Amino acid sequence: MPVIVASDLDRTLIYSAAALALTMPDARAPRLLCVEVHESRPLSYLTETAGHLLTELGDEALFVPTTTRTRKQYQRINLPGPPPTYAICANGGHLLVDGVSDRDWHESVQARLADECAPLSEVQDHLLRTADPVWLRKHRTAEDLFAYLVVERELLHEEWVKELGEWAENRGWTVSLQGRKIYAVPKPLTKSAAMREVARRSGADLTLAAGDSLLDADLLLAADLGWRPGHGELAEASWTAPGVRALPERGVLAGERILREFLRTVRSR
């Protein structure tokens, strides 16, 4: 029986330059491996050691990259190790099988959203109507499934985020603030549902997961064992649950520690 390792990517396994949290003296900083280039510029990194660990993990378990990124954004990432058979994109809206979206899965997700949630257009209208141009920088939709704003965090009013969350709750949506992005995501659109589908297809009897944000909570709860880093939404809220371990490491070294925990658990079976 395979072991599934479903891990969030951004700020869990891979990190932008701003999120690396290299607090040690320069001479002791870890060597970094660039795993994403965007518009001819390096964008995301992990440590070289993490790269080796990820390669080993891909040989010993069914590694499933699990992200809120769109398919196009995910495909910019070039992770070490064997190409993943499965990947979860758009917060569970797309299940990639050998790099191609599974149409049956996507259609089943769309049907559930139509039955259970207010339409994306209503949420978009509300976001644009209520967001303050002083702090709003961009408005985007992702895969026609959810919406997000790019904001100036230091100018953002926390009360507005709270009010948005209450408004969304009554319409079957949830809100997550991650760095400079505010996500509005339908509640049934979850990483955990897609992970369960991978487990069903692969016959896995053990699922491991990691993530740092509110949108990862359902994934961590659904896994047999989970880990979260010492930064991010979940850490800020001191969130934990049975079977979920809160790690002290922050930044890119947290990604390395998470991979060590995955490998240790896989090898101890």
UniProtKB/TrEMBL annotation:
InterPro entries: HAD-like_sf, HAD_sf, TPP-like. It comes from the Bacteria. Keywords: Hydrolase. Gene3D superfamilies: HAD superfamily/HAD-like. GO terms for molecular function: hydrolase activity. This is HAD family hydrolase.
